[in-house]
Amino acid sequence: MENSPVTAVIVGGGHRSVIYADYSLTHPDKLKIVGIADPNPDRRKMCMEKYGFGEEYCFENADELAKKGRIANAVINGTMDHQHFDTSKPLLELGYDMLLEKPFAVSKEEMDALIALIKKHGNKVMICHVLRYAPFYLSIKEKILSGAIGDIINVQMAEHVSYHHLSTSYVRGKWANSDKCKTSMLLAKSCHDVDLMMWLMQPDLPQSVSSVGGIFQFKPENAPENAGTRCTIDCPLVDSCRYSSKNLYLMHPNRWECYAWADLENKKDANLEDRIESFKNGNPYNRCIYKCDNNVVDHQSVLINFQSGATATFNMTGGSAKSMRKIHIIGTLGEIYGVFDDEKYTLSKLSALAETGFEDEIIDVSCGGEGHGGGDDALTRDFIEYIRTGKQSVSCTAIENSIAGHLTVFLADKSREQNGENQTFDFSQYKTR
Q: Which of 372, 370, 369, 379 is nearest to 20 (CA)?
């Protein structure tokens, strides 16, 4: 395998899987896509034509793929969150290695079952925590490892989810109702951030966690007077409401097209009339933002105590003007702080001799605006290297390195459901890096 491309089958041919699979188009000597398992025949056809394999390697689901036996080295699993375990199980049992979209499980019980399965069959599984590979966070990790700020005392992280992202994905969209998608807001959206925190703190592990949060904005009692139920159909506020589907989607058809216009995915050159018709025919993105079936929180705060005595906070706030991830790490010798979206951060070192008492260095990590701050391609490249050699990079998201982040989310949500009651960790059954 070392001198030939890693072969992979896509399971779930959605947006994220295709991004990773496209690495094969620019690096055919490293990765070759040889099959697709997806219930949508148009997606199967698209992947077959795009990556150049035969119809005999198109399958409706993971079980059908498993019946064929092992036809590749690896699987790129980009199914929906609650499908990850069921679609992974038959393929891991065949010995496939796997690049698995986050979160890799939707409960502790499911996480434990998946880890036991991988341990039994010896698979190499990496989780798609792509932000570990973004130059911004990778550079910060390297500064910490170099001892630039000494021992970490406190970490403060925040994710601001823009109003249009929140409304699209977590009020009107796929991750709005935990009874359907089986994930919380913290697990579906901010598991990236919690994973980053655990990774930056390694080898330190969390000892306890508490959390509070709720739905602040999008509930029926907050709907404007006279608001309808479907924006372009019966609402007199369709032109003035900031969350109007007309303003968010019709006026900006490319902003969230893979979500808002999923029913037009296979219609070439869809125009404004097609989109208006989609809204007339029950498109869920035309629902009043205050009258949906959402039940996931739109803001949540998490407080973590680590075994070393260090503390950390994470705040997720939905409804901001723009999306933003902020970080501030305070150590015994200095600080690191910055905004991910700015692609630079400040390293501030203690300096008793300096007039100000500190010395600042601005670290520019600009990468040209590639996916997830440059993380998408880097993760795919590292996955190929990992299954070829077994070597783990600094960023490696091998599943055993992702346990702490997932467990933190599960316990934080349990705390939130119990009005902030403190939850304690037990890592005795896990091997963590």
A: 379
Burial of 332 per CB tally in 10 Å (0-12, 13-18, 19+): exposed
Contacts of 238-246 spanning 24+ positions with Cβ under 8 A? 241/289, 242/163, 243/163, 243/167, 243/289, 245/279, 245/285, 245/286, 245/287
In which band, very low, low, confident or very high, does the pLDDT at 225 lie, cut at 50, 70 and 90?
Answer: very high
Same domain, 196 and 321: yes
| CATH number (domain holding residue 301) | 3.30.360.10
Q: Answer yes or no: is 126 within a domain.
A: no
Q: How many CB atoms lie within 10 A of CB 25?
A: 12
Question: Mean pLDDT across the stretch 293-305?
Answer: 97
Does 421 score more than 80 pLDDT? yes
Distance CA 258, CA 43 (A): 13
Question: Cα 320 vs. chain centroid, distance in angstroms?
Answer: 19
Q: Residue 367: inside a domain, yes or no? A: yes
pLDDT digits (tens, 9 = 90+) for 201-210: 999 999 999 9
CA separation for the pair 346, 307 (Å, rounded): 27
- The stretch 181-202 carries a mean pLDDT of 96
Position 387 in a domain: yes
Q: What is the pLDDT of residues 337-356, one digit of tens each?
A: 999 999 999 999 999 989 99
Asked if residue 36 lies in contact with residue 62, where contact means CB atoms within 8 angstroms, the answer is no
The length of the chain is 433
Six-digit token string for 121: 């069959």
Asked whether 332 and 153 are in contact (CB, 8 A), the reply is yes
323 & 395 share domain:
yes
The pLDDT, as a whole number, for residue 429 is: 87
Domain assignment present for residue 431? The answer is no
Domain encompassing residue 242: 223-286
Question: In 3D, which of 97, 84, 118 has the Cα closest to residue 31?
Answer: 97
Distances, alpha carbon 305 to alpha carbons 130, 158, 243, 311, 408, in Å: 25, 17, 38, 5, 11
Dist. CA 263–CA 97, nearest whole Å: 33
pLDDT bin (cut points 50, 70, 90) of residue 147 is very high
Taken in order 223, 224, 226, 232, is the CA torsion positive or negative?
Answer: negative
Say yes or no: 227 and 365 in one domain. Answer: no
